[in-house]
């Protein structure tokens, strides 16, 4: 089993967008990724010409960077790191804010060669090479200002992270969920935020869009942002959704949008 795991890591590393490249600064990293970004795909071109769509879209990363500069958090928890491109954009904003002891606690079991290695923003990053479940003891000691959920795109995983880590999110803090329109399981988790009176919630479209077998127009990956108004009753998981695999929208619209239409009687 260990050899299978290392083989998977080696394969991922071999398709690294910036394989064997060392960056001098965050600005150097951004310039390189901009040169590889393909806006119409919402992904980044690898050396072999293929497109990596596992990184967050560049436009959304820029928005997150300014978002952090606006709300000025001290403690960020990010689940799902990959090579850490989003982490670097968040860390750059923390550096800009200049708040003492501010940190991003980023959780991901994949031990890849992260973009932040050797950069000055690295001091704002605490990498936890574990699954979210394994990292729970470290996270529960924190008062979280912003919780970014972007790991496995199933209801089981995303809802576990939301219901487990949300109690450690302070009043006035934020939950940010990528892929809430394109993946039904993530959308179902985001719906918990809409259904709770304890949150203000907004879902926006994002640049990366695809058609599916059931929806024959481009569907956005989507991003849901929720502000926690107050503490209160815990969010409860939907047992019927827990066994379902990662799935794309079944149509005619992404489920999160369908639920929104039902609420508005559209």
- Strand order within the widest beta sheet: 6-5-4-7-8-12-9
- Could you please say which CATH topology applies here? Rossmann fold
Q: Give the end-to-end Cα distance, rounded to a whole number of Å.
A: 51 Å
Rg computed from alpha carbons, rounded to a whole number of angstroms: 18 Å
Domain module count: 1
Low-confidence stretches: 1-9
Number of strands: 12
CATH H level, superfamily name: Vaccinia Virus protein VP39
Reading the helices and strands in chain order gives HHEEEHEHEEHEHEHEEEEH
Describe the biggest sheet? 7 strands, mixed
Instruction: Give the averaged pLDDT, no decimals.
Output: 91
Secondary-structure class: alpha/beta
Q: Treating each run of at least 4 consecutive H or I residues as one helix, how many helices? A: 8
Tell me, what is the CATH class? Alpha Beta
Helix content: 25-40%
Corresponding CATH architecture: 3-Layer(aba) Sandwich
Shape call: globular
In terms of DSSP E residues, the strand content is 15-25%
The oligomeric status of these chains comes to: single chain
Could you please describe the fold and organization of this structure?
33% of the residues lie in helices and 20% in strands. A 7-stranded mixed sheet has the order 6-5-4-7-8-12-9, with helices on both faces. Strands 1-2-3 form a 3-stranded antiparallel sheet. Strands 10-11 form a two-stranded antiparallel ribbon. It is globular and about 50 Å long. The termini are far apart. The protein has 8 helices and 12 strands. The protein has a single domain, classed as Rossmann fold.
